[in-house]
Design goal:
Largest sheet of chain C: none
Largest sheet of chain B: 6 strands, mixed
Oligomer: heterotrimer
Order of helices and strands of chain B: EEEEEHEEHEHHHHEHEHEEHH
Shape of chain B: globular
Number of strands of chain C: 0
Distance between the termini of chain C: 59 Å
Protein name (chain B): Amino acid/amide ABC transporter ATP-binding protein 1, HAAT family
Largest interface: A-C, 51 and 50 residues
Number of helices of chain B: 10
Strand content of chain C: under 5%
GO cellular component, one term (chain B): plasma membrane
Helix content of chain B: 25-40%
Mean pLDDT of chain B: 88
Chains: A mainly alpha, B alpha/beta, C mainly alpha
GO molecular function, one term (chain B): ATP binding
CATH topology of the largest domain in chain B: Rossmann fold
Number of domains of chain B: 2
Helix content of chain C: over 70%
Low-confidence stretches of chain B: none
CATH architecture of the largest domain in chain B: 3-Layer(aba) Sandwich
Order of helices and strands of chain C: HHHHHHHHHHHHHHH
Radius of gyration of chain C: 21 Å
Strand content of chain B: 15-25%
Shape of chain C: globular
CATH superfamily of the largest domain in chain B: P-loop containing nucleotide triphosphate hydrolases
Organism (chain B): Cognatishimia maritima
Keywords (chain B): ATP-binding, Nucleotide-binding, Transport
Low-confidence stretches of chain C: none
Chain lengths: 358, 272, 328
């Protein structure tokens, strides 16, 4: 009775093209935005921000980025960790080289740099496909991490080999460094995520998105009906890299504060983000959020229940997490290759008819 | 043969123009196998041109040459009077040649509407930034394209499945959606690779009607491959007959029907 | 003879032997890929899992000891017996066969006919799952694996080369044994595939599932068999790597090196896997030797991948893979 399209008539194609064509969805979306921007900032403290909200927001950006490449354009990448490292180190070099420029510009530029690097490693995608490409992106992962570990210029010759985020402000409010307020970092990331998600949605619902999906579904046919495979794939790598780079920059500058390429951006990061989009839903922006939320919450949940309540050792809980995540991946691929997002869609279709299904 | 430049009017009153595409001495090899051997023929503006022949005659390869998917080792393709350099398939598509496939090649993960919209690809100019912010050309073109696509949807009578994912559709409807996608490009030449394969009589009748209507209403030039002789003879203005990669006949349906080589090929005279 | 050249020769030999081990892991990939079209990312973790199991059985560890202790508050760790290496290897093999049955029954039987990339991602999931199971079953601390293989410098080679060049080559006995075993294993697999009934059935399935089904080959059986053989190859690789550098998580990452090996050799070719392995093994050791010091070292981390990547751009099907013809 709650979820209805009936009576929600559209009189122009523009109305039918919008992001949330159903009125109910639109209102819920405004409600979520209101919650995120106007209510949550007053309720959260450091624990909530660091354990849940920041990782969720930042991984969502990364997942959206990877989803554009893998879910929409069909090019599997195992190099997400390495590309996040490019964003992080790019942001660090910019922050230290131009201290007077706004951090927002630095984050965006870091995204741009990552986009370019991503395109370079994406060039082979024109010749190689499927898991050949997936393995090729491993080259990016290992090479980039090695580069940031071994070339001292990248970490400004610091003795520890780490990079540390200097203090930077926006409108006089600190968003990086040790003395930040929980709500400030949260809002900073939320704003960027919101803009990223809108851009991703616009790109994927229009001509660009259709080209990507055409390449994903049947690349030869796509080329014959007029999709330039070079442009389509390269643009997917560029846009994906841009988002992943922003995520990397935020992950380092806002969330971690200090980072080292191998620890923070290793191959496990690549898999984590890949799992987010598989569980959340390949080819779905909402799925990127769902997957990020799921994989951020799962360890916190397991830790609280198993370690906090039952008193198990932490390593046991961590291993159990491996089993659960691995099992879920397999389960989703078997039962629902489109992930949580598809479950959500099915639920909505049921709701449209409920309680009178005939 | 007719003179290339003059136009004539068919019995049912359609005007057939001059030559829009000409294939000259096309030879295509795969390794040692010769798929097409020294074939020449032309396609005139506004006509329905059929390519027929037994299995393995090289018909699909010929269509693939026209749409740029295969580059022939020898021979030239003239399009609108100009020699076409060897180019990638997407460039050919942009010149106004659209096609359907023998084994349906729709984008299974997308809705019917999105599939047809991909046909409008080279009618959109908006760049990545305009699309990212859904402003300017991006927004205007999306609506304009949608209007064209909706007309085609009406024309092919597939309004009800607009937002259905293609993967869920039955075979006959998929064929129709594929035709819609090709039409959405508003092509000057439409290539149809066995548009009626695997259809029952009613579906064939529907499809024949659509093909004739497309040719009639939009004046689209159509080149098609088809196995059903009845359909080919009814629909087409001129027919090319291929066998073992060679051209064995070319002319109006009546001429072809009485061609001894063609009769031999279809009744199975031993080859030397 | 100049010193650099002699050192280079030593590095070359060592690279060759490392390459044999890469080839061994790569072989497991090729087997599964040929028979089922599955690109098994979990091969490395299978090696880790088998090595963990082997150590666990030999030491008489209680499986899931940690978990049981955590749930029931008990303090059990060991049964208190030690199993001889040969018996333990046999038992481990049994576990790997069991694993093959489970993988087929619970995972890939439900994914028949899916796109290769979906299958690939499923094996990544499997890798995570298996790693978690291995750790929970046997604990995640680094373990030593002693199955009685000879280790340390080979004195014979050391002395002979000293006699020749005035410089003794350092070649590890373990590497020599590994090379011998790998050659043996490869020959056995080739004979198995060419001359036995099961082997022929396996190749038939690899060629065409439908056709194999129609002449009465049981797909299920073949796939279980292939996964078992892959499990066996993983066990051998696990023993080698485990004896070399201890049984630990990094074992599964070392196995990742098999991926560029495959890209060089082509996914469907057994000789390709071997030659690819040797090229990667020698290539990365020589590169580290020649270029490593100039750029900060540790180039082994990425050299194999980048080499494979560059190679693929020019020859997408690998050295021995079949040429890809695209159709509409």
């Amino acid at each position: 009775m709650f979820y209805r399209e009936a009576g929600d008539f559209k009189t122009s194609y523009a109305e039918d093209n919008q992001t949330f064509p159903v009125k109910f969805d639109r209102y819920r979306y405004y409600a979520v935005l209101f919650m995120g921007f106007a209510i949550i900032p007053f309720l959260i403290n450091d624990y909530w921000v660091n354990a849940i909200f920041l990782p969720f927001l930042i991984y969502s950006i990364a997942a959206i980025g990877l989803n554009i490449l893998t879910g929409y354009c069909g090019q599997v990448s195992l190099g997400t960790g390495g590309f996040m490292a490019v964003g992080a180190y790019g942001c660090y070099k910019l922050m230290t080289a131009f201290p007077d420029v706004s951090i927002l510009i630095h984050v965006l530029l870091a995204g741009g740099i990552t986009g370019i690097v991503c395109v370079v490693f994406g060039l082979p995608s024109l010749r190689i496909k499927g898991f050949y490409l997936a393995v090729a992106t491993l080259a990016a992962q290992f090479f980039l991490v090695w580069l940031f570990n071994r070339v001292p210029w990248f970490y400004n010759y610091s003795a520890s080999g780490q990079i540390n985020a200097p203090e930077r402000t926006i409108f006089g409010i600190e968003v990086t460094g040790p003395n930040t307020e929980a709500w400030a970092t949260y809002l900073f990331c939320l704003v960027i995520l919101t803009v990223c998600a809108l851009i991703a949605r616009n790109l994927t619902r229009g001509m660009q998105g259709r080209q990507w999906m055409a390449i994903r579904d049947m690349d030869i046919a796509a080329e014959i009906i007029g999709v330039n495979p070079l442009k389509a794939k390269i643009s997917a790598f560029a846009v994906s890299g841009f988002f992943v780079g922003i995520a990397g920059a935020l992950f380092f500058a806002v969330y971690l504060g200090a980072a080292e390429a191998g620890d923070s951006f290793g191959i496990t990061k690549s898999f984590l983000v890949l799992f987010m989009i598989i569980i959340g839903g390949l080819g779905s922006i909402f799925g990127s959020f769902a997957g990020a939320a799921f994989l951020v919450l799962l360890p916190v949940f397991l830790k609280n229940v198993l370690v906090g309540t039952l008193g198990w050792p932490t390593d046991l809980a961590a291993h159990l997490e491996f089993i659960i995540v691995g099992g879920l991946i397999i389960m989703f691929l078997i039962l629902e290759p489109h992930g949580l997002a598809q479950l959500w869609r099915v639920a909505k279709e049921k709701l449209r008819l409920w309680p009178f299904p005939h | 043969m007719l003179d290339a430049s003059d136009s004539y009017v068919t019995e049912d009153g359609r005007t057939i123009g001059g030559v829009v595409m000409e294939m000259k001495n096309i030879t295509l090899r795969f390794g040692g196998v010769v798929a097409i051997k020294d074939i020449s023929f032309d396609i005139r503006q506004g006509e329905i041109r059929a390519i027929i022949g037994p299995n393995g005659a090289g018909k699909s390869s010929m269509l693939n040459v026209i749409s740029g998917f295969y580059n022939p080792q020898e021979g030239q393709v003239f399009y609108k009077g100009k020699l076409r350099p060897s180019m990638r398939p997407y460039q050919v598509a942009r010149q106004g040649i659209a096609r359907t496939f023998q084994n349906i090649a729709l984008f299974e993960g997308m809705t019917v509407l999105d599939n047809i919209m991909t046909g409008r690809l080279h009618h959109s100019k908006a760049n990545l930034f305009e699309q990212a912010f859904w402003k300017g050309r991006a927004e205007r073109e999306e609506v304009a394209n949608r209007e064209v696509v909706e007309k085609i949807i009406d024309f092919l009578e597939i309004q009800t499945i607009r937002k259905t994912p293609v993967g869920r559709l039955p075979y006959g409807l998929k064929k129709r959606v594929e035709l819609a996608r090709a039409l959405a490009a508003e092509p000057s030449i439409l290539l149809l690779d066995e548009p009626m394969a695997g259809m029952n009589v009613e579906e064939k009748e529907d499809m024949s009607r659509f093909i004739l209507d497309v040719n009639d209403e939009f004046g689209t030039t159509i080149a098609l491959i088809e196995h059903d002789m009845g359909v080919v003879m009814d629909l087409s203005d001129r027919v090319v007959v291929m066998d073992y990669g060679k051209k064995i006949g070319d002319g109006t349906p009546d001429e072809v029907r009485n061609n001894q080589d063609v009769i031999d090929a279809y009744l199975g005279v031993a080859h030397d | 003879m100049p010193d650099q050249l002699i050192f280079g020769m030593e590095v070359f030999l060592n690279g060759l032997m490392a390459g044999v081990l890469y080839a061994l892991v790569a072989l497991g990939f090729v087997l599964i890929y040929k028979a089922s079209g599955i690109f098994n990312y979990a091969q490395g973790v299978m090696a880790l899992f088998s090595a963990l199991t082997l150590v666990g059985i030999m030491e008489g560890q209680v499986p899931f000891g940690h978990l049981i202790n955590a749930i029931f508050g008990t303090e059990i760790h060991h049964f208190g017996w030690h199993v001889p290496a040969v018996l333990a290897i046999l038992l481990t093999m049994g576990v790997m066969v069991l694993l093959a049955v489970c993988v087929q029954k619970f995972v890939f039987r439900h994914l028949v006919g899916q796109e290769p990339i979906i299958l690939f991602m499923a094996t990544i999931g499997l890798a995570y799952f298996l790693e978690g199971v291995g750790d929970i079953m046997w604990g995640s601390e680094i373990k030593k694996l002693e199955v009685g293989l000879p280790q340390g410098i080979n004195t014979l080679i050391d002395e002979t080369t000293y006699g020749w060049f005035g410089y003794g080559f350092f070649i590890d006995n373990l590497d020599l044994v590994a090379t011998a075993i790998a050659i043996l294993l490869v020959s056995a697999l080739v004979i198995f595939a060419q001359y036995t009934k099961q082997g022929r059935a396996m190749r038939a399935v690899a060629d065409d599932h439908q056709a194999a089904l129609s002449v009465g080959v049981s797909l299920n059986f073949i796939w279980i068999m292939v996964w078992s053989v892959a499990g066996f190859v993983a066990l051998v690789a696990g023993i080698m790597w485990g004896a070399k550098s201890g049984v630990q998580f990094s074992l599964s990452l070392i196995a990742l090196k098999a991926l560029p090996v495959l890209m060089l050799g082509g996914f469907t070719s057994i000789p390709g896997a071997i030659i690819g392995g040797l090229i990667i093994g020698v290539g990365e050791k020589m590169f580290e030797f020649a270029v490593g010091p100039l750029v900060g070292g540790a180039t082994e981390n990425w050299f194999a991948y980048v080499l494979a990547l560059i190679f693929l751009v020019f020859r997408p099907q690998g050295l021995f893979g079949e040429k890809i013809i695209e159709r509409v």
